[in-house]
Amino acid sequence: QVQLVESGGGLVQAGGSLRLSCAASGSIPILYAMGWYRQAPGKQRELVARSFSGGSTNYADSVKGRFSISRDNAKNTVYLQMNNLQPEDTAAYYCNVHEMRVNGMDYWGKGTLVTVSS
Predict the structure, then answer these.
(1) Which residues in the chain show pLDDT less than 70?
(2) Per-residue DSSP letters for 11-47?
């Protein structure tokens, strides 16, 4: 099992910044992707950004150029720097670890709320 603990959410005005952190512990897979998803009220959960063991990353089109994901493998921690936040970024943000193997498991954090006021 993998446990994920998120931090860094909060309330910010449009144009502001926040940094989310997620620390993983437990039985960390050898190869895994670690990233962030978000879910706004009444909407499906969507990928925000993801970092792979080999170093590559991918982002949702809606956050490209504003958000940046980084990863500290020694600490099993992933960060999401969010700049120029907009009201449409308001959502619960969930940390995810996905095992990079056939039928790999997905692990989820409890979520942290980000609210952007206009």
Answers:
(1) none
(2) EEETT--EEEEEEEEES--SSEEEEEEEE-TTS--EE
The 8-class DSSP code of residue 102 comes to T
Choose among 69, 50, 72, 48: nearest CA to 60.
48
Given this model, what pLDDT does residue 62 score? 97
The residue type of 8 is G
* Residue 86: partners with Cβ closer than 8 Å, 6 or more residues away: 14, 116
Distance between CA atoms of residues 102 and 79, nearest Å: 26
Indicate if the alpha-carbon torsion angle 90, 96, 100, 106 is positive or negative: negative
